[in-house]
Amino acid sequence: MQIDLATPGGLALSLLPEIFLVLWGCLVLLVAAWKHSEENATDLVGRISLVGLLGTLAVVWWMWVGDWTAGEFAAMMALDNFRYATSSVFIIASILAVAMSFGYLGRERILIPEYYALMLFGTAGMMFMGGGADLIVIFIGLELMSVCIYVLAGINRRSVFSAEAALKYFLLGAFASAFFLYGIALIYGATGTTNLALIDFQIAASGLNDSVMIMLGVAFLLVGFGFKVGAVPFHMWAPDVYDGSPTPVTAYMATAVKAAGFAALFRILLHGFGNSLEIWQTGVWWLAAITMVLGNLFALAQRNLKRMLAYSSIGHAGYLLVAVASGGAMGASAFIFYIVAYTLMTVGSFTVLSVIGRNGERDVKIDDLSGLASKHPWMAFAMLVFMLSLLGFPGTAGFMGKWYILAAVLKADQLSLAVVLVVASVISAGFYLPVVMAMYMKPTTDADSHRNAITSGAAKWVVIGTALALLVFGVWPNRLADVSANGADNFRQVSPITTPLSTPGAE
Amino acid sequence: MPASVGWVWLVVLLPLLGFLANGAISFIKPDAKGAVSAIGVGVLAAAFGVSVAVVSGLAGAAHDAPFIVTLWEWMPVGAFHIDLAFQVDQLSAVMLLVITGVGTLIHIFSTGYMSEDPSYPRYFAYLNLFIFFMLILVLGSSFPVMFIGWEGVGLCSYLLIGFWFSEKANADAGKKAFIMNRIGDFGFLIAMFMIFGATGSLSFVEVFEAAPATLALGGTTVTLITLALFLGCTGKSAQIPLYTWLPDAMAGPTPVSALIHAATMVTAGVYLVARSNILFALAPISSTVVAGIGGLTALFAATIAMKQWDIKKVLAYSTVSQLGFMFVGVGVGAYAAGVFHLVTHAFFKALLFLGAGSVIHALHHAYHHTGSHEDAQDMRNMGGLKKFMPWTAGVMWIATLAIAGIPGFSGFFSKDEILAQAFARGHDVPFFYVVWGMGAVAALMTAFYMTRMMIYTFHGPNRTGEKEGSHLHEVSWVMTGPLVILAIGSLFGGFLNLPAVLPGAGWLHHWLEPITEGSAAFVGEVHLAHNTEWILLGLATVIAVVGILGAYRLLKPQNLVPAKDATPETGMQKVLLNKYYVDEIYDAVVVKPLMWLSRAILWKTVDEKAIDGAAVNGSANITRFAGWFGTRFQTGRVGTYVFFFVVGALVLLRTMVR
Fold first, then answer.
1. Residue ranges of the domains in chain A?
2. Which of A21, A93, B301, B418 could be cross-linked to B320 through a Cys-Cys bond (beta carbons 3.0 to 4.6 Å apart)?
């Protein structure tokens, strides 16, 4: 279906999922305010939020299946499959995080119904990031998302660690946003526009390949995104913040937030600088290589499960950066596949962590999992699937994801990155496998261990669902691969103008 | 494509469903024997029914090209493209009917034979799984798909040999079979790589179409490919030098020996050569090797079979010997003759094994009643069983006459055709006269040792024991019924492919022509003069009769004593009884040095010291240290973080701004 963006109705249609989600978020806020004093209000609000997210997902898929495209040049929000695919990933990650929160919030006595409203608004922000065709739209989406996450990180007011996490994230996040905004300004100065397709056209038309302003601008953008996705050396907030935040929020940050950062990065680099790879490929190459190697090395030294998972998510940011570095449609489809697999395995392992470590999952050591297989065989099996998938073991979606990334990067003739990726994966066996070893090969430390583990409720279904999905996509990846390839289809926007604009920053 | 041929996937699916259902039952409700029997036999009978429909569809089809039934794309990687597809043609049709037909009978027999086993569901689950993989093996339309089946039947064979795994000897026998087969599988893999390298494809149709053009006749490539393939065959089909696992495989339940180690799996090597006949026809050296090894194995195994006391060991060596005959057939270029012997052998050898199973079952039963622990498989504990088990004795005599090669019985026609073809092609390759000679002597021995087995088992006085004698009786009809059907096959199977001098000759030969016509250009059609053929037929008859009569005259069953009273053998007899000490030689020459090498050098030195010590732990320590060192910067202070942030940003700027 073609949307006529010239009319207000068409414009509203093109923003249908975002409008729907934001309105639903307002509704959730109202309910939260109305029912605030009641004991089970949090759960009620959670259920309403779940419905809203499912509704949004339905709208996105309706647009995707209906093949909605823009009738003319989409200046602010793109109408393409990449937007639908990435929006789906954000929404699914949010659904999983919400489902994971049900039992958790009650258990930890975090009875704040606004928690869910923040998740909905954060997700709306992400959708603007994944769909934005203009740097300013992306920036607004980024800020909308970030503000929500700052609050969510500190939502457990009784926990010092939660407060510390929120403050650190906020301070460093503001710092990174400044870099990001400065990057936008420099690019605007060099090209006279913030629209991605126009930037691309301007660089080609005015021969800005060697413009220092553009290079600086792109480098600043990379710093900003490097922070959001947790790439080394802008990663140092991540272990502390992941560690201190409530576990469902950590899972949300490690998956949805990271996915949003990557989606926006992909769009900016491929739409705005798709014809001038030489500007950014070196930088991304270094970020990817360093992030993969150091992220995995640092994870080796962890004995605490939650911190280990935090560092592991840094390593995975490195793998995703490899997909970015390959810089093509194949890389984009590999990215979508991998981010889905990554979301499933990360949410799954954080969920297992949250049900094992009630009353203080901050202190769950890897050795505390000893003997889990004999007490909770199915949960241990699910954790085995998550660990093997994170490791990239054949038969799991994690393996197929890495395979697609490797295929994309080899297609782009970046053999060295492929080698680094494989070496980093080997290192990662050093901290994923001890988890498996503890669960299956070590005896329980005492009779009481694992007694507290809760194996019912929504968390149980999250674990079952993610583990099953990982196995299904690992053995039978075709469908998801097709969807990913479709999501990266037509990932190109042609500039509507033929004569260069004047640039405010022209020397 | 005829509609019924398109249903071929159902033939494969049914045993798989049987495996899943019986496997589930073995966990949930292990004593539900009725359901297990119904499922286990039912899926096989249904598969046989569908197979008949598929084959009749094929027979009614007008064109000769194989029908390819593609299920899904399996491995599309660039130019490398493999579908999970089945190939229905004249050769796979023959195998299809043999596997599902004989398989059904053996499943029925098993419901009686295994009825008192506590692991009944597990047994049928394995048996169904075996049939599933065997069908994949013969129906696969490419080398890799065939290889799935090839590996799968090896797995099932391993599982079933070690079915009573609580005894170490049985588990060891399973392991031995597995390892020997792995050596052969290595050859198969190498061959696949080389075939892909040479022709750029692995599907049968494409490879065989491309082969005559891309591979030079007698060239090095095709010779190496076929030798590597044949290495796979020697493992799977128990030929020299990898035959020693098959006699040990008798540790499994006897119906398993009948199904896997006589009728179907062990013939996979013959099937592989027949399937790749164009490749072998292009490699005369390899074909000569195949025929030579086949002839040698036929002779060698026959001599060992002459002196075994264990009834199943006699049949095991007999199987090795008969497989040797089949390889002589496919080696000299008479592919149809090899397949023909495969079919008739499936009938009479399955019958012999199942008959032996009946005897063992009866003896076991008798000993069980009296609480004795005598060996129920030792022929010295048998004798005179024909009056207790008339049906078993009768059908086993039919099978014996068939394998010995008495005119009119199936084995006569199939074995004679192989020998006649070897003789006829000796005109071009004189070495085939030697092969023929070995085959003829082996045939004489076959007649002798089979008659010996029958006399010691069923005739003369009974040596089972005083008390046990009253408990000996014929087994139930579920076990004799399949025997009778197989006996009919052993009797009339020969009419599939009568010699050229008889009317209605060469039906199977003609049926397989679409398969073999590609290679006919290289190995040629050989026609014997009529009088030569009559002479060879006469000679074959004389060999069989002399062998049987010789055994009848020379052996004195009344002089035998039960196994526990027997004196040890000496001299050549002892060498034969101990199978030429080949197992001991392998142990001393291959296994022991290999174990020493693995243990002392590879494990204690290379692995523990160099790899574990220096490489693994060393590199692990270094990486761990790097990780620990890196996390030292994780101070928890925002100031530190900002510092590294800015340093990182500056370095990034430096790399990006040119």
1. 289-493
2. B301
d(CA B520, CA B522): 5
The pair of three-digit structure tokens given for residue A382, joined into one six-digit string:
């699910």
- Name residue A195's beta-bridge partners: A134
Per-residue pLDDT tens, chain A, 507 aa: give them: 888 888 888 889 999 999 999 999 999 999 988 887 776 788 889 999 999 999 999 999 999 998 888 877 888 888 888 999 999 999 999 999 999 888 888 877 888 888 999 999 999 999 999 999 999 999 999 999 999 999 999 998 888 888 999 999 999 999 999 999 999 999 999 998 999 989 988 898 888 888 889 999 999 999 999 999 999 889 888 988 998 888 899 999 999 999 999 999 999 998 889 888 888 988 999 999 999 998 998 888 888 888 899 999 999 999 999 999 988 888 888 999 999 999 999 999 998 888 887 555 557 788 888 888 888 888 889 999 999 999 998 889 999 999 999 999 998 888 999 999 999 998 898 889 989 988 888 887 766 666 666 656 788 888 999 999 998 888 888 888 888 888 777 777 677 777 877 777 655
> How many whole angstroms separate alpha carbon A69 and alpha carbon A2?
5
- Side-chain-side CA neighbours of A89 within 13 Å: the count stands at 34
Q: Running DSSP on this structure, what letter comes out for residue B250?
A: G
Output phi, psi for B69, to 5 deg: -105, 105
Candidates B143, B101, B72; CA nearest to B11 is B101
CA A114 remoteness from chain centre: 22
pTM beyond 0.80: no
Cβ–Cβ of A234/B648 closer than 8 Å? yes
Question: Can you tell me the distance from the alpha carbon of B523 to that of B636, in angstroms, rounded to the nearest whole number?
Answer: 81
For residue B69, list its beta bridge partners. Answer: B86
Confirm if B240 and B293 have CB atoms less than 8 A apart.
yes
The residue length of chain A stands at 507
Euclidean distance between CA atoms B264 and A341, whole angstroms: 44
Residue B527, SS3 per DSSP: coil
Residue A299 identity: A
ipTM, two decimals, is: 0.86
Contact A462, A100 (CB under 8 A): yes
Looking at chain A from residue 154 to 213, which residues have their Cβ under 8 Å from any Cβ of chain B? 168, 171-172, 175-176, 179, 210, 212
What phi and psi, each to the nearest 5 degrees, are found at residue B371?
Answer: 75, 20
A423 to chain B, any CB pair closer than 8 A? The answer is no
The DSSP line for B12-35 is: HHHHHHHHHHHHHHHHH-TT-HHH
Residue B301 contacts residue B264 (beta carbons within 8 Å)? no
Pairing of strands A69-70, A2-3: parallel
Handedness of CA B112, B118, B122, B123 (dihedral sign): negative
Report CB contact under 8 Å: A210, B658. yes
B656 contact residues in A (CB cutoff 8 A): 215, 218-219, 222, 279-280, 282-283
3-state secondary structure A100-121: HHHHHHHHCCCCCCHHHHHHHH
Q: Positive or negative, the Cα torsion across A18, A21, A26, A32? A: negative
> For A222, which of B631, B641, B652 is closest by C-beta distance?
B652
Chain A residues closer than 8 Å to B658 by CB: 210, 215
**Which amino acid is residue A64, in one-letter code?**
W
Task: Search chain A and give the residue with CA nearest B77.
Answer: A407
